[in-house]
Amino acid sequence: MNSKIPKDLIERAYQGKSTKEDALLLLEVPPFELFKFADELRFLAVGDTVTYVVNRNINFTNRCVGTCGFCAFRTNNGKVLSIEEIMEKVREAEKANATEVCIQGGLLPDVGLDFYQGIVEAIKAEFPEMHIHSFSPMEVYHAAHISGIPISEALRRLKRSGLDTMPGTAAEILSDRVREIICPLKIKTGEWIEVVRQAHAAGIPTTATMMYGHVETPEERIDHMLIIRDIQKETGGITEFVPLPFMPYNNSVGEKMIKEGKYATPGLEDLKIYAISRVLFHGHVDNIQASWVKLGKKFAQFALHCGVNDLGGTLMEESISKSAGASHGEMITAEELEWMIHGAGRVPKERTTLYRGTNGLASGNSLRMSGCGVYE
Ligand code: SF4
User: At which positions is (3R)-3-methyl-D-ornithine bound (predicted)?
Assistant: First the structure.
């Protein structure tokens, strides 16, 4: 059978030079050809190892002054965890062998950077080895604004307090047209890019997410990925790309969609996103993560054959996706993740947040990161 994927497109992908037109064309080829191509690129980038991290999510509050129309998590008067309550959760995480805590929360109206630094410093004082992967670009922007300091200064202070890495959340779709519809008061595309670039400059690597499946076009999804690729070319500070399908329940954006007869993305569309991200990021971002919380365990396992090489974290608790209709649980054990990975014919490996020592093969970003020494 002749491949529907043109040879010159394949060549560009191998060279890390896939274009927007390439990605649009790949959307039209038979899906299993696309998956096979992405799987080959996955093998070239990271081999057969599939990673996961033992971690704990901690959401310190769901109280938020934000107005994001896709959010089912926020309230006007939710509880804010005290430092001691956060520490109790970190202690439980440490007892469960977690190597990372991922802390995020709503935007509190009168809480500046001291609050965030206080959390980080308390954790590092008791658990200097615990990797702190916390605070979205939106939270950093908000805290810097309340404290009246530049973003770069806020990031430098957080780094000094002990912040190790940041989740590249709050990215949604990096298009101001889309943001105006789904989250008009959130940081704009240029502001998200700037916080992430500044974080990398301060020695704080980040992940990069994409929440898709609401009002965006296929072109806007691809533009989003190309923006992230451009950041990576400049800084080398992105550890992984995490596509996140939109959960349309209990939020106004989703309710409007459902009234118009649109629902959550079909599975085939999710798998194409993972595969296309593998193609677009080849040579730039080695790690493509599937969220078992959003996709479900069985589908996340299948995604391992469509370009994915990481299954994220064990989490221990999860409330953001659950409030928007995810029903796949709040925690998974390392043993079950390894079972899933073995079942896909791959080699499981627990990783650190920074994927140190996991991917034995060529690695665009990790080579640059170890070369410049900033992220050592
Ligand atoms: S997504 Fe985050 S910033 Fe937006 S309303 Fe929800 S909690 Fe607030």
Answer: 136, 291
